[in-house]
Specification:
By secondary structure, the chain is an alpha+beta fold. It folds into three domains: 2-96, Immunoglobulin-like (Sandwich), CATH 2.60.40; 101-186, Immunoglobulins (Immunoglobulin-like, Sandwich); 193-295. It is built from five helices and 18 strands. Helix 2 (193-202) packs antiparallel against helix 5 and helix 4 packs antiparallel against helix 5.
Length: 328
């Protein structure tokens, strides 16, 4: 009996963990102790300190608890069912394995980056969640930096061929999720939204060209040039009509002069309307150029690597320092 008891005590000293597919259920078994009058299992929730005690007649404990971290130990009664001898507490980690889900938007990185990191938002992430990038028949494993239920941080070191990759996440018990075309590896270095925007604000079409969209750049530049030309023409025409109208002299009671006067006034008013319309067209084309540069210009990184924003919180002195550096 004592040999069996020693073996039993050793067997429950090691940490135990469960990964289940649907619910936090499983079994803990240990060697039968000869002459034992029964067993008592104690399960302690490390978060609340609550202890659950279960009387057992066989060397087996059915685990059915919520996901979390626990401590577990077993006591052995003597043949009279009294005076239990307990093992030491051992860790019991209960994890429910479900299909992971990703809420993060597709991303793009540059092919020149030797290392990049992804901060994935979603659900059902575990420390044992495996992450891969899949492209046709090739699969590249990502290194897990940290994992929580709603956030998974992974990274990759090395060169990846340019192209689009699916994101494959695998939880224990083959609970998998595949996100098509989640990562785009770009041949050219990724550019920032701000880099595109300020160029387009200086010269419409420049930002689009900088981002690699040649035909968008040509279209934007052509439309803006046409709108600017039309506005210049309307401005010149307006000035001519204004000078003609204001330069008229004569007797308003003369019928011929009156016809000339009224005609000049109408042309002057029409030229003013045309000038206003040309101005609104020019402003609209310019605004659409900025909108295209900022939001509609295809996939690229929100911020380039040259951008850094790092807050420094000093709780002791109640100060917060924010430093930002950007290189175009």
């Amino acid at each position: 009996m004592y040999k069996s008891l020693i073996l039993f005590l050793i067997s429950v000293l090691f940490p135990v963990s469960f990964l289940t597919a649907a619910a936090a259920e499983g079994k803990i078994k240990w060697p039968e102790v000869r002459g034992a009058g029964g067993y008592i299992a104690e399960l302690k929730n490390t978060s609340t300190g609550e202890i659950t005690r279960t009387e057992l007649s066989i060397p087996e404990y059915q685990v059915s608890v919520p996901d979390g971290d626990y401590l577990f130990r077993v006591g052995v009664y003597n043949r009279f069912g009294k005076n239990p001898r307990f093992s030491n507490w051992t860790e019991l980690k209960v994890r429910v394995s479900r299909e992971p889900s990703v809420n993060s938007a597709p991303q793009q990185v540059s092919a020149s980056d030797q290392k990049f990191a992804l901060d994935l938002q979603g659900k059902n992430f575990l420390p044992d969640t495996a992450a891969f990038l899949v492209n046709k028949d090739s699969r590249y494993e990502l290194q897990t930096e940290s994992a929580q239920n709603g956030e998974l941080k992974v990274s990759y070191s090395g060169n990846l061929p340019a192209g689009q990759y699916d994101l494959l996440l695998i939880n224990p018990l083959q609970k998998t999720t595949r996100v098509p075309q989640f990562i785009t590896i770009a041949d050219k270095p990724a550019v920032s939204r701000l880099s595109i925007l300020w160029r387009s604000s200086v010269l419409p079409g420049w930002g689009q060209y900088y981002a690699g969209n040649f035909w968008r750049a040509v279209t934007t530049a052509t439309l803006f040039t046409a709108a600017a030309g039309y506005y210049v023409y309307s401005e010149i025409n307006y000035n001519e009509k204004e000078n003609t109208y204001l330069g008229l002299t004569g007797n308003v009671n003369d019928a011929a002069f009156r016809r000339i006067f009224l005609n000049a006034r109408d042309e002057y008013a029409a030229a003013g309307t045309t000038q206003n319309s040309a101005f609104y067209i020019l402003i609209t084309v310019y605004a659409l150029n900025l909108l295209d540069a900022a939001f509609l210009n295809g996939p690229y990184l929100p911020l380039a690597e040259e951008f850094a924003l790092q807050p420094d919180f000093n709780f002791r002195n109640g100060e917060t320092t924010v430093m930002a550096v950007y290189k175009f």
